[in-house]
Design brief:
two-stranded antiparallel ribbon; mainly alpha; globular; 423 residues; 2 strands
């Protein structure tokens, strides 16, 4: 019943977004996904990552067959596109395999085996649908929020020392090598999440069931709730509001060389193209989730999770996509969601309720302070800067302390019974 309810809600949500996108004369998430059955996909790696998620329910023999079929289909598409000089991209084969297994689940499987395969297919398609849904959400934010609050966030960022301007100059100094590495990390965040999720779901095929909690759940909830905050607190980012990319809509061409001067902030009109997708930083939120879930993996996965978090922070700030205030809000946002999902899994005990309530309160207080106390924050950075960091650290500390209480206690080692001494 739970999976059926989730499926119905997801379908209704996609239909609503499709209708909203059509009102602006653009295709919605369902249309864009249907096009990728034939036309060049937007992201081939994402489709293969989605197929990999689906394959956690398959046997090794079925996995090899699925990969072979996907690659074969992509080769055919590649040759046809090359012949007609069309846009080149792979990934159609992976989508065909996912849809093919959906047909197999309905027509060839029964009972628990059908349910398990449908869950795997749903998991893979949810990842793809999440990407398409996000694109439509960004379109809606740009069309429905004509003014942005960048001046308020940039003013509040003085309390943190204008980190976007600082990191932006550092990234610029690294030249094309650093730029390309950070750009790849930023774009392929979903692929990194799938790698961690595959480790967590590695036993699904053998145990014939999914674990109660895994990274994909957190990833999807972050993507579902985050755009709602975009609508409440629309921000475009320093590279647009204070950089050349903003054109004549920008306050001035200041990023990343000159921090913005301190002055009273105001709402500022902006174009209807640039997404209002800064507050909170969802890339930071997703990278934080990857870091958290990689902690239980082998050492190489832990290093990868830490690297992806650090590199994502460097990219979000260094490319001018986010302010430092967005990063703090993104971390608190993720820890609150992760705590809520884990508390729901356990049955909502008192520590879980307190942690979620505290995280939500801190997150709300951050947004309110950015909007209404930005000048006070900028004028007394030695007070508000440490307070912002302390607020984030307090949520991190609360999360670590509470989740440690939830960890199963190791059973004490049994002591051997005393044996009579042999003479």
């Amino acid at each position: 019943m739970l999976w059926a309810t989730v499926g119905v809600v997801a379908l209704g949500f996609l239909i609503a977004l499709e209708i909203a996108a059509r009102r602006y004369g653009l295709p919605g998430p369902m249309t864009n996904q249907a096009r990728e059955v034939i036309f060049a996909p937007k992201s081939g790696p994402l489709l293969y990552a989605s197929m990999a998620l689906m394959m956690v329910v398959l046997t090794w023999r079925e996995r090899f067959i699925a990969v072979g079929v996907a690659v074969g289909i992509d080769i055919v598409f590649f040759l046809v596109r090359w012949a007609v000089d069309a846009k080149m991209m792979f990934g159609n084969g992976a989508l065909w395999v996912i849809l093919g297994y959906a047909v197999i689940a309905v027509t060839r499987r029964t009972g628990k085996e059908r349910a398990l395969l449908l869950k795997g297919i749903g998991l893979g398609l949810l990842l793809v649908a999440g990407r398409k849904t996000g694109d439509t959400w960004l379109l809606i934010t740009s069309k429905t929020r004509p003014t942005v609050l960048d001046q308020y966030v940039a003013t509040a960022d003085h309390a943190l020392g204008n980190p976007s301007w600082l990191v932006g100059r550092l990234v610029k100094a690294t030249g094309p090598v650093g730029d390309h590495i950070l750009d790849y990390v930023y774009i392929q965040l979903a692929v990194a999440a799938v790698i961690v999720a595959l480790y967590q779901l590695r036993n699904v095929a053998a145990e014939r069931r999914f674990p109660c909690h895994h990274l994909v759940r957190t990833f999807l909830v972050i993507g579902l709730l985050g755009p709602g905050i975009y609508m409440i607190f629309p921000v475009v980012g320093p590279i647009f509001a204070y950089g050349a990319d903003g054109g004549h809509w920008a306050v001035a061409d200041l990023w990343p060389n000159t921090p913005p001067p301190l002055s009273a902030p105001h709402h500022m009109p902006f174009n209807d193209i640039t997404p209002r997708n800064c507050m909170p930083s969802l890339h930071t939120a997703w990278a934080t989730a990857i870091f958290i879930h990689s902690r239980k993996g082998p050492r190489i996965l832990q290093f990868a999770g830490a690297f992806w978090l650090i590199a994502t922070l460097g990219a979000t700030l260094g490319f001018g996509y986010h302010y430092g205030a967005d990063i703090i809000a993104g971390v608190v946002f993720t820890l609150t969601i992760e705590a809520a999902l884990r508390a729901q899994e356990r049955g909502w005990d008192r520590p879980g309720i307190q942690l979620v309530a505290y995280g939500a309160t801190v997150f709300t207080a951050l947004l309110v302070s950015y909007r209404f106390l930005s000048m006070e924050m900028a004028e007394t950075p030695w007070v508000f800067g440490p307070l912002l960091i302390l607020a984030m650290v307090s949520v991190i500390f609360g999360y670590v302390r509470t989740t440690r209480l939830w960890e199963p206690k190791a059973a004490p080692a049994q002591q051997p019974e005393p044996q009579p001494e042999l003479v």
